[in-house]
Amino acid sequence: MGTEPRHWTALPGVLAAMGIVLLALLGSLTAGGRAHAQDDAAQSITGRVQNRPEDGDREPVPDVRVVAEDESGNVVGESVTDAEGVYLIPIEEPGTYTVRIDTDTLPEGLVVADGKEEQTAEVGGNQNVTRAFFLGESSRNVQSKLSLLPQTLANGLKLAMIIAITSIGLSLIFGTTGLSNFAHGEMVTFGAFIAFVVNSDHGWHVIPAALAAIVATGLLGAAFEKGLWGPLRHRSTSLTSMMIVSIGIALAMRYTYLYLFSGDLKAYSQYTLQRDPVSIGPVDLPPRTLFIIVASAVVIVAVALFLLKARFGKAIRAVSDNPDLASSSGIDTDRVILVVWILGGALAGLGGVFYGLEFGIKWDMGFTLLLLMFAAITLGGLGNPFGALLGSLVIGIFVELWTWLVNNANDLKTAGALIVLIAVLIIRPQGILGSKERIG
């Protein structure tokens, strides 16, 4: 009887905190959603790039660059097709435009069908014009498979660094709390959309917008811990129940993004148009991609030094290794876990901005990354942030390598990552850097 009143007393606080979190989320995004009602109605050119094999159904072709030019031949916008082969190019003013495919970005062995590499689009005010491109098998000589390997590995490194940025926080949260947070992918999307709203609606450059997104996502992580996960943990709620709650939060957040921002692929105002790649030997990368790789590496090294050298970083590792022992030795575990949520949220926000810069912003982008994040931390060793980094490198590179090994396997990218995950875990069940646990 003595403990029951405390439980009921804590319940209104939990509900109030959850309400604050949801209101903060909806408030910050609804402003952007309302503002984007005009943006969504503004003129644009969109469409799909699909492969039409002679003996099969149409297949979407991702990672193809599509450019829009005005009547003077000046490039006014560009986009890269997503996993469904969809591109979206915002157009500032109505007029006549030429839409063309960058043939250098086409997959090996494919060309634009009937030679129609460009099309004309008459764009009126507040009009969304659709232009589709169809590809077919090439009869010309193409690059050898081996010559494409360096570029494939470079693309894999780019994806690996983004996965690493997002999965380190997920690994730290699991290590300190034991929670498999299925809403972590939606925190990644949250950061991308916050930067997008600040960048597009309020005119901030994408770099300060990214800093705002990092802070906002870190605060969202703190709000989740103080308002939901902390109270549930103190009431001895099972990890299975908390995991199911995280799935519900993920679904609610994901479809809130869809409602507020629609399903269109969106882009930041800066750094999406980069026609001149930087050549590094056999590899060509846009300056934006080089920046993402270098900046991700710097952040990862900084987090690693923090965990290894800083006093609070050592406390995080102690709580991750053994929470009960850390608490008995005088470490404030609740404070440590709060900092982990803030750090994990901030890294998720940064990863979301990087992913949005490289692949575009979409309502389900976090869900797309979530499976790869879980695969990375499982492969590296659950709860080990350094294992998450190593696992991310393996998963990211092998996702791209799979499309190199198996022709036209863009739809099976994640399947390749899961195959390598299963193979490693059969040999080493605890993961690459995980430690064996003694049972009994």
Helix content: 55-70%
Distance between the termini: 36 Å
Regions with little confidence, pLDDT below 50 for 5+ residues: 1-23, 25-41
Task: Give the C-alpha Rg.
Answer: 23 Å
Tell me the series of helices and strands, N- to C-terminal: HEEEEEEEEEEHHHHEEHHHHHHH
Query: In percent terms, what proportion of residues is strand?
Result: 5-15%
Chain-averaged pLDDT: 82
- How many DSSP-defined strands? 12
Specify the number of helices. 12
CA-based shape? globular
Characterize the main sheet. 6 strands, mixed
Structural class by SSE content: alpha+beta
Can you walk me through this structure?
This protein is globular. The N terminus is likely disordered. Helix 2 runs antiparallel to helix 9, helix 4 packs antiparallel against helix 9 and helix 10 runs parallel beside helix 12. The two termini are 36 Å apart. The chain has 12 helices and 12 strands. The longest helix has 38 residues. A hairpin with a 5-residue loop joins strand 3 and strand 4. Strands 1, 2, 5, 7, 9 and 10 form a 6-stranded mixed beta sheet that branches. A 4-stranded antiparallel beta sheet has the order 4-3-6-8, with no helix packed on it. Strands 11-12 form a two-stranded antiparallel sheet. With 440 residues, the protein is α+β, with helices and mostly antiparallel strands.
